[in-house]
Amino acid sequence: MADFYAGLLHPLTAPEHLLAFIALGVLLGRHRASAEAGLIAFMAALVAGGALALWLKHVPGLDLFNVLSILGLGALIAADLPLNASVCVALALLFGLSHGFANGVAAVPPIRALPYLGGLAIAGLFVGGYGWVSVDYLLQRNLGWLRIAVRVAGSWLAAIGILVLAGSWKQLFG
Amino acid sequence: MRWLAFAWWFVPALALAHDGQGDIQGGLLAGLAHPILGVDHVIAMVAVGMWGAQLGAPAIWLLPVTFPLVMAMGGVLGAMGVPVPGIEIGIALSAVALGAMVALALRPPLWAAALLVAVFAVFHGHAHGAELPESANAIAYSAGFVIATGLLHAFGILLGVANRWRVGARLLRAGGGLIALGGVYFLVGHLT
Fold first, then answer.
1. In chain B, where do the E strands start and end?
2. B192 to chain A, closest Cα gap in Å
3. Does the bond joining B58 to the residue before it have cis omega, within 30 degrees of 0?
4. Per-residue model confidence as pLDDT tens digits over B143-182
């Protein structure tokens, strides 16, 4: 049971994952046609990515990619571009894999993989699902300023992504 | 009643209760505090919100959506240690200029307003970004100061709602005047 919680809490206690999960949820909420498929794809990809990590152990540049995921998703929300449902599902798959992998790296023995990955998937469900439902609900209110507020939230996420890149510049590029 | 469901968005704040788990709380709090502890920052950020509200659409939404991104660019410069001369003077000037815009209810073309705000955003961002590398958790710090800045804008926009009423509009302009005077105070302080 502890392994389940380890998987659940790992992304929730790491801002570099939590912000991406939130960003995906907000994006799915904004593009509600894709939301259900997107969330299921996200959960599946998290598990797949995590499982992949048990085998591959390390992918160079993954942490940078995950920071870029926050930037990219935030920018898409801020720009309010119309996105095809399949694009949203593809993004959910892509970032589910990358974040799943990064979280899976932490599932070293004595942590058992299966409950850990289950916890990871549930974390994705909770945060992504909550983001989706809240944004969807807010946007249904049809208040102009709420739509702006969602875009502003995207802008914040993108800004945070830009800054983290700057902060890690030296580590990443020497 | 359904709105209570949104209370879950505040759950991450529980992280703040866990003192000593180190960097996330420290980073987040440091980031949140940074814009708020500088009065020169606060008044300028509130003025951006007030001015956006005065200018109305599309400025009222364009500014809050683009400001964090431009500020982040400035933050990148600060974090990388790129020297920009006169940051503190620039920040004081931003309070003077933006306060004056509100006080005089000036309505330049959108591109001019955006340009002015963008230049100041770079200065403010630089000041925050310069502290970024020293903070324990860069992402928590960045999140903190982006959110704090955004909330200050929101506050300014909220004040700007007063613009709908004649008395409110006058009070808003008076507020802008006070901000400009505050900026002069800081400017003089830096120049002498």
1. none
2. 33
3. yes
4. 888 999 889 888 888 888 888 888 989 999 999 999 999 9
Number of domains in chain A: 1
pLDDT tens figures, B47-90: 998 998 889 888 888 888 888 899 999 988 888 888 888 898 99
What ipTM is given for this predicted complex?
A: 0.81
What's the rounded Cα separation, in Å, for the pair A116 and B133? 33
Q: Given A130, A133, A159, which is nearest B68 (Cβ)?
A: A159
User: Could you say which of B8, B80, B143 has the minimum Cβ distance to residue A15?
Assistant: B143
Chain B contact for A172, CB < 8 A?
A: no
Q: What are the domain boundaries of chain B? A: 24-191
Token pair of B188, please?
A: 């003089």
Which residues have CB under 8 Å from B102's CB, separation 6+? Answer: B47, B50, B51, B54, B172, B173, B175, B176, B177, B179, B180
Q: B103 near B180, Cβ under 8 Å?
A: yes
Q: Are B111 and B162 in contact (CB under 8 A)?
A: no
Quickly count helices (H) and strands (E) in chain B. Answer: 7, 0
Residues A64 and A155 sit within 8 Å (Cβ to Cβ): no
- List CB contacts (< 8 A) between A167 and chain B: 79, 132-133, 138-139, 141-142
Cβ-contact A103, A11 below 8 angstroms: yes
Range of the domain at A68: 2-173
Cβ neighbour number for residue B171 with a 10 Å cutoff: 14
User: CB-CB: which of A158, A160, A166 is closest to B76?
Assistant: A166
